[in-house]
Amino acid sequence: MSTAIASASSHLISNATLIKQGAEAKVYSLLSLYPEPQIFWPESSSSTSSSSPSSSTTAGTTPVILKYRFPKQYRHPTLDSALTRSRLAFEARALTRCARAGVAVPRVLWVDEGGGVLGLEKVEGWSVREVLGGGAEGEIEVVEEEEEEQEGDAAEDVERLKLDDGDEDGLGQVESEGMIQLKRISVTQEHLMSSIGTALSRLHITTIIHGDLTTSNMMVRLTPGAAQPYEIVLIDFGLSSTAQVAENYAVDLYVLERAFASTHPQSEGLYAGVLESYARGMGEKRWQP
């Protein structure tokens, strides 16, 4: 049984694209967990099928993120296997628990404890890091040989963003694509900070601690037709745990504060809005002894 499951995960990974690698896991992108179905028409009915609407229309696929906790060579195999199983199982349970409590998180689509693979819904949108101008995570500087090649394209992109933002003089700061899209639906940075605080309060009310609360692990997803035009989706619960004391919540908030200070120094003052919204969401009893 475990061999069959492991081979299924290996097959998924072999068809996926590696998009990120960290110390604990590799992250892959996959178009769908299931192969696209194909319908083959008999030759005798080919003329009929060509003249009539095709019935081979399939439901839209769900893009998937595969998180593979690879074996660690510095750990004993037995210990490594046990840790991988427990951490992956807790991450899946934490995400499910959050979803039931109304916290916006990726849906869990695939769990393979033995193979160390977790399949999650791919969240379309931008990370808060990107929206606030911190760039995409893992973004590297262009080497000298490539700079001249990309100078022209970069200049065109800058000019396009300036025009989109109505900055004809070119004196304003170039905004990210995510921030431009949010402004088009009348969302300000202050409103974004308030939404982040609300999302964190909903998370902590479940007594789940994220463990790596940075702006890279918060996604902004547009929700056309919903009550709110967008939502904050919390991702990457690989270091999550259950709160034992009040200080556990404080550590989560402190990590986020440091992320603002280091990655978004120009937005550090807005962090107060996150705390105000968080306090309202947690309620008075949570803040008083």
Automatic annotation (TrEMBL):
GO cellular component entries: cytosol; EKC/KEOPS complex; nucleus
Domain called Protein kinase: residue spans: 13-289
UniProt record, GO biological process: tRNA processing; tRNA threonylcarbamoyladenosine metabolic process
KW Kinase (keyword) present: yes
One Pfam family linked to the record: APH
Region described as Disordered: 144-169
EC number annotated for this UniProt entry: 2.7.11.1
Catalyzed reactions per annotation: L-threonyl-[protein] + ATP = O-phospho-L-threonyl-[protein] + ADP + H(+); L-seryl-[protein] + ATP = O-phospho-L-seryl-[protein] + ADP + H(+)
Record has DNA damage as a keyword: no
Ranges annotated as spanning the membrane: none
Sequence ranges of Acidic residues compositional bias: 144-156
Top-rank lineage group of the source organism: Eukaryota
Enzyme class: transferase
SUPFAM superfamilies tied to this protein: Protein kinase-like (PK-like)
UniProt-listed Gene3D superfamilies: Phosphorylase Kinase, domain 1, Transferase(Phosphotransferase) domain 1
Keywords: ATP-binding, Kinase, Nucleotide-binding, Serine/threonine-protein kinase, Transferase, tRNA processing
Similarity annotation: Belongs to the protein kinase superfamily. BUD32 family.
Listed name of the protein: non-specific serine/threonine protein kinase
